[in-house]
Amino acid sequence: TSSAGTTIHTASSGTGDNNYDELWIWAVNCDTSAIKLTIQYGGTTTVDHDIEVTIPPEDGLVPVIPGLIIQNSLVVKAYAGTANKIVLYGYSNEITA
């Protein structure tokens, strides 16, 4: 429920034009109240790396990371305003040349 959040994904190493991860993540809120989810994308500095989304209650899969690119072993973390109520689902496409 606070920074730094739980690790969701660690990107592939490298910085070249031929080494990226394309990340797709959806969230589900199993509670009866809306809950704020914070994704820390590539770092944990507030504002610089935070993606904040309020996840509606019992609303199915809500897209929170829509195919964003990440690389160079950067880490994606997440935390929510209420513990044990948000579930994240997704996948990563590793793009290499």
Task: Report on this structure.
With 97 residues, this protein is an all-beta fold. The model has no long low-confidence stretch (mean pLDDT 92). It has strands spanning 6-10, 19-29, 35-41, 50-55, 62-70, 75-80, 86-96. The strands form two sheets. It has a four-stranded antiparallel sheet with strand order 1-6-3-4, with no helix packed on it. Strands 5-2-7 form a three-stranded antiparallel sheet, with no helix packed on it. The protein is globular and about 45 Å long. The N and C termini lie far apart (38 Å). It is built from no helices and seven strands. Strand 3 (35-41) and strand 4 form a beta hairpin. Helix content is 0%, strand content 57%.
Please provide a brief summary of the model.
Helix content is 0%, strand content 57%. It is built from no helices and seven strands.
The structure class reads mainly beta
Ends apart, CA distance between termini: 38 Å
Secondary structure: number of strands: 7
Instruction: Kindly state the percentage of residues in helix.
Output: under 10%
Taking Cα atoms only, what radius of gyration do you get, to the nearest Å?
14 Å
Largest sheet: 4 strands, antiparallel
Mean pLDDT: 92
Low-confidence stretches: none
Helix/strand order, N-terminal first: EEEEEEE
Strand percent estimate:
over 45%
Question: Strand order across the biggest sheet?
Answer: 1-6-3-4
Helix count equals 0
From the spread of the alpha carbons, the general shape counts as globular
